[in-house]
Amino acid sequence: RPRVLSGIQPTAGSFHLGNYLGAVRQWVALQESHDAFYMVVDLHAITLPQDPAELRANTRLAAAQLLAAGLDPERCTLFVQSHVPEHAQLAWVMNCLTGFGEASRMTQFKDKSAKQGADRASVGLFTYPILQVADILLYQANEVPVGEDQRQHIELTRDLAERFNGRFGQTFTVPKPYILRETAKIYDLQDPSIKMSKSASTPKGLINLLDDPKATAKKVKSAVTDTDTVIRYDVENKPGVSNLLTIYSTLTGTGIAELEQSYDGKGYGALKTDLAEVMVEFVTPFRERTQQYLDDPETLDSILAKGAEKARAVAAETLSQAYDRVGFLPAK
Ligand code: AQP
């Protein structure tokens, strides 16, 4: 079976709809066909200032949400990044292989450091993509299911894998991004020109899956559309409506063309009311399942412990090969 690997940050508490539709939903599907490794990337989470107690709680919360979304520990390996020390170890090697200018071109770093201010942004934030390279290469992943915003980081991963292989001999699988066109980028409900994101979206534009379903319904009903009345998928001219159609279609499995047809002649109000209902039906059981996992932290921790053990077995083998190739003397 081909292998996939991906990760999600435990920073925000609740996952948002973009995280779910852009990434996590694909993770659930891929565990059926792939040897799947998924992790809560707590090392990445400290690239911005964090509260220790909150990080710990949010790490469990992220794992609980992944299970609630449908990850099955019998079908995939679910673990916490810091439980597998090989990530940080391989990241150092990758840091030494990356050009300073090359790392400076990462747009996510540029955006986030601009927000932080140059003196406040950490070196960790700068090397974030290189840690991500190590995450992926350690598992010899063939594919990496992510949203569009991660494409550049996967490109960097490919470049560094090829560079390492070229310089030291074939060691790493060169991975491909796995990005579904339809859900690659879910947009902010209030400003459909920007992606839905925990840092850039306003509360009204961001759907957090763990929020009160009533509040979520309200956000859907007040989503920004346009002054036209036709319900048609047209990203250029009707970005707000198109985003709602994407969300609706993905959550219900109804094709976009079919939705356009069934809403022919109906107004935006009807579409929003129905989508609000679809959303409530989705988030209500999701919240309940997440809570059930949180109520049983022992089971949750034991799932994560088993996951870390399985992950370490793979990661340790790759790391030891990479260490050998770069010329480190084996420890006796
Ligand atoms: N709007 C989105 N549409 C599609 N996919 C998205 N992803 C994030 N936003 C969208 C995908 O979610 C996965 C996890 O991303 P992350 O760990 O970077 O999560 P995050 O930091 O909470 O996501 P944000 O909101 O994007 O954070 P900020 O605001 O900090 O930039 C990834 O696969 C990502 O592509």
Automatic annotation (TrEMBL):
Protein localization: Cytoplasm
Enzyme class, UniProt record, top EC level: ligase
GO cellular component, one term: cytosol
Name of a matching Pfam family: tRNA-synt_1b
GO molecular function: ATP binding; tryptophan-tRNA ligase activity
One record GO biological process: tryptophanyl-tRNA aminoacylation
CDD domains registered for this protein in UniProt: TrpRS_core
SUPFAM superfamilies for this protein: Nucleotidylyl transferase
PROSITE patterns: AA_TRNA_LIGASE_I (PS00178)
Keyword Aminoacyl-tRNA synthetase tagged: yes
Main location: cytoplasm
Catalytic activity: tRNA(Trp) + L-tryptophan + ATP = L-tryptophyl-tRNA(Trp) + AMP + diphosphate + H(+)
Residues binding ATP: 9-11, 18-19, 147-149, 186, 195-199
Subunit structure: Homodimer.
Function: Catalyzes the attachment of tryptophan to tRNA(Trp).
Protein family: Belongs to the class-I aminoacyl-tRNA synthetase family.
Protein name per the record: Tryptophan--tRNA ligase
